[in-house]
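Here we describe the complex-level prediction in full. Unlike the single-chain runs in Section 2.1, the two entities below were treated as one system.
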Amino acid sequence: MRKISFSADYGYSDLADASAVDELLLLFVDCVDNEYCLDFLGCFIDYPTTSVLIDYFISKLSGNNRKLIVLTDLLLPEDILLKLLFIGSKYVVVEKSEVSVVDCVKLSSRENNMCITVKVYGQENNIIREYLYG
Amino acid sequence: MDKDSSLIYLFEAIDRVIRFLMHIQDVRSQFYDYDDNQAKTSLVYIKSYEDAVDKLLNILVLLYDKICGESFQEESAYRTIEGIIKTIGLLHNELHYLPRPSEPIELKRFGRIINKSIIGFNDYKVGDELAEKPSYPIYLSESISESAYLTDPIQEIKKYYINPLICQVNGEFGLSLDRCEFEYVESALFHLSIPRIDANNPIRWPSLIHEVAHKLMRNEYFKSGGIYEDFIELYDFSAREEMDTMMSNNGLTKEVVKKWLIECWCDLLGCIMMGPSFWFSQNSAFLFGRSTIEKKEGYPTPYFRLRLMNVILRHRFGEMISDDVVKVMNLSMSLSKAFELELQENLFNNSAYRNLFVFFRIFFLKHFFSVDGESGGFLDRRMNESIASIVRYKNLADGDAMNIARKKLAKGYPIPSIRVDGDVFKERPAQIQEILHIANIYRNTGMQEEVFNILREEISDVKTKLMAIFKRFDMSVLRSIQVSEWFDLYDSESKIGDMIYDESQQPEKGYGLLNDNYIYQKIKSDELVIIPIMNISDQLGSTSFDIRLGTSLQVYMHTKYGVVDFVSGDVLGNSRTLDLDYLESFTISPSQFVLGHSMEYIKLPVDMAAQVEGRSSFARLGLQVHMTAGFVDPGFEGVLTFEIYNAGHNPIKLYPGLRIGQLRFIQISEPMRPYNRNIDAKYGGLLVQHESKQFKDSEVGKIKEKINEYHFKCR
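The structure predicted for the assembly as a whole is:
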């Protein structure tokens, strides 16, 4: 598994800045793995840049047992958190009016043959919530 | 702070310094440009301000070299620039020693926008009573930031001095003057102020909407009876307890969050009304406020606010926020970001702030636009037809058209109109929000580059050149705002589509007087520039193009010395400029002579000359539009000056926009020295009429020299 801590390891804390995200992605051009852990702790995230980032790593997932883990410290209700992370994504489409956001993510995970986990951290650096899709 | 951010900060400081100098120049020209002793004494005082600000400019020029050099020290550069901005603030506070120049007429236009926005709130109340909507005047002030005043500035004097005097008179003389006592009336006294140095700087005006929004906000705009109550409903979910703990551990109490919500609501209403120009205006206000006012406790940080505004802008004005614009905004915001990072607790290292930001984001999108598909977002419920007309530019905004307009502004052209896409030539009036948006983007790109190019030059020329750039920018934007409002009035469906223009029928060079087909093709291809063209089918005749009266007039009086003498310079100061506001007119008396200008800004190609003529309908009233100076040289650029004379027996009311003249175009072979390449050209590129500059003719200089020589010998 490849864990990428954008703020702690790479010093990129403003992931709402499109030019910073473009710059950041260049560091991972050669990456290929079946499991990525995207650590957004300490990062300022917003759409559409977050989904650009996530899509990039989904496109880099290889093999059969494909996993994407997202770490965040945003205490949002599940559906809102998923929208913030995935809105605009090519792979995880969350804007289907007839299906709930949670079901959308589950469906997309299955379609893309991957498992998505979202872990929410509290201020004490403890996991206070964990969602599993796919 | 990196090099790029330092350069942006430097540019902002230069803006402050140059605007201060321009303001001093305005004071000088409005009050002291005449020859007497009082003026000379006052000029010494004015010079003291100039000397102080000149020094600051010199420091900035030197600093530019340092920032661009290899030994760049970010901390020292940052502190110096901050010190300069702070000093300008202090000097600005002391400007009350100098008379205030008059406000530009365009500020009234902006006031109208604000007042329209109040009309949009159709249930305006004072206390529990429905009230007549007030008109909010805008004044200049010595304060360096935009302000809203809710009270009468002399309220204290009325209460503590005048009222006791009335009581005293009642008691001692047995009179009954009770009714004369002053009472405090809030609604009638609200007014706005902008810094004196920004009187002619329209890109700072949108911030005023924030102050107005404070005044407009009402609890009943929120479903649960208040903004905070609506907000907490949003995060009423399983993590509520954790959120509450997180917030209170970080000082985000109910009172603080409520205050933040109110500030952000006012920002976001400003964004909705004014579009991206509000964002830029607030960004500047935050930068200058940071150095000149104490840090405001309990307010969201500028970066928090700018980011939130960004969300709303992207949601509502996607068309206007192209990748280029995002780049400019991010660069402009990099300073606020650097300031944010300096804080011990900031949006990046504190998850409570980040959580709050996301909740604000969701709350406001829902509140204003009802993004979850529920009906009854604030805009639906509150904004009636009037306000819809203010924000209609949202539907018109076109990124490509704006880019074209930005290029025009970079050339110094005004931008009161936007060309409508299509095969047939058509323009529409630019909305004030579009004009300001284009101006902001140009200011943060092309204009910044121009300024830095000048900083690389010799220091003796820097001040004059920088002032010329800023002055041209202001003038172009102000004229655009003014003319676009008239265009709005005259806007109608053009019938040009019904007329047949044969593109293959172009005359050979040297053909002489040009016909409508040829003129149309030249306009369409941008070889002949005429800005704006309000209604081409009305204006284009078989061999002519009608031009309209502009908004400014030069009204002549008798000279102080009773004679026009270019050699002694007595010709100067014998006229006054009259700027007409929307729907205002000027009455020209019989035998009166005034200068006016065409509403159209014109640029002739180098192989085309033009002849200004009157129109028969006006000639029949005795109105002449030129006095033997009707020829326009090839390559000329600027507005055309009308020398207007009323030869009739009755006064005539002149309204801007009336088609009082016409141009005939003549194709010629290209001259060796067209007007735009003539270094002695006196009237090129003007945006309004100008008095005679005959004193600049070489003959005048020679006569003057001889006279001086003669007097010297006689002594």
